[in-house]
Amino acid sequence: MAPAPRGGRRTGGRRDAAGGGEAVRKGPWTAEEDEVLRQHVRTHGPRDWSSIRSKGLLPRIGKSCRLRWVNKLRPDLKTGCKFSAEEERVVIELQAQFGNKWARIAAYLPGRTDNDVKNFWSTRQKRLARLLRAPLPARSNQHRSSKAKAPPSSVESQAPPFHQGPCLDQASFEVDNSLGGQCCEVAPLMEYQNVALDPYDQTGCGLLGFEGALPLHVFPPADGEASSSSAARLAPALPLDQHQYPLLDFPGLPKRCVDVFSGFVDAGAMDGLAFQELLPVVQPAPMMMPFFCMERAHNDDAIKAEPRDAADDFFDELPPDLFNDALDQLPLPPSPSRGDESLTCRSVCSLDEVPRPAAFD
DNA sequence: AAAGTACTCAACCGCTCTGAA
DNA sequence: CTTCAGAGCGGTTGAGTACTT
């Protein structure tokens, strides 16, 4: 049953000086208005929104008509169902890739609109902020400037710098001055989120290992591996022996989720979002964030035998090169100058220079 | 049951982009 | 080249609902 129409804000029309004095209606749409709009689209297609008002069909501005169609009336919309875990995963992945380009992200989610994605992300941010018991950060210039004119060729061709994790605006992690004040780039939460959610893992095993306190690299598929998203791997950006390994305390994790001795978390024992949200909370110190080493269980028959869920099928239906494209676009961090690679989170070597953990070979 | 809080989502605003004149 | 209007996008708001205390 469809929920009762929500009360829109600023209901009631007002005079629109630019519209020739005719009252412009705002606020919630009625079923009659929706039908008029549908009829217009049937006749003219989803365009000429302004003509709806100019022809006297509806006392709504074209902008409002377009929005109503795009967000509510389009026949292919998934209405009334929450984002699935896989949709969440896609959003997180693509948000890390594209930033707050909701329309672009929504293009990868059939039946979802930019508004849906935006609302989902906003809700998620609030939830995370609450979990962190910290207010959302003051809006960064970086995000404010999303509307600022950027060189067109660079905006689309360059993904956000690796260190500019968009999630939470890096809010909750202060610079760790214990590293001599040199580590000025806070490791983006998104990296951890990505790993926690294991967006490349199609095995369903959900095993995530934590081994250190490093940012990650995404490895391209190794030779001979299928050129699919599942071949992507994450690995520490720096040699393990260059870093201290913090003792990790996961007070919030259900005991059954953590194998204390192996250091692996059974992410499958809790839903992805909860696990993901827990991560920032349980980190003892900013730069002591553990990294999570992807454990592709190629050889684990038991894991392979686990039934695939609908989430996996969802990914199967995505264009096979979707994530390859995304990975291809991951910016290569600048090559480090010798000797300072341990100083900053982003001072990591190019992918080719990153040592592949033996576990992946 | 009431009050408070969190969540969802529709719809607005302001701005940028784009193409036609 | 400039102007202008329409389309599109991202940010924000606030009402209604769900959940918790």
UniProtKB/TrEMBL annotation:
Entry-linked CDD domains: SANT (cd00167)
* One GO cellular component term: nucleus
Question: What Gene Ontology terms describe what this protein does at the molecular function level?
Answer: DNA binding
**Can you give the residue ranges of the Myb-like domain?**
21-73, 82-125
| Localization | Nucleus
Q: Where is this region: Disordered?
A: 1-33, 134-162
Q: Which UniProt keywords apply?
A: DNA-binding, Nucleus, Repeat, Transcription, Transcription regulation
- Species annotation: Zizania palustris (Northern wild rice)
Name of the protein in its database record: Transcription factor GAMYB
According to the entry, every stretch annotated as the HTH myb-type domain falls at: 21-77, 78-129
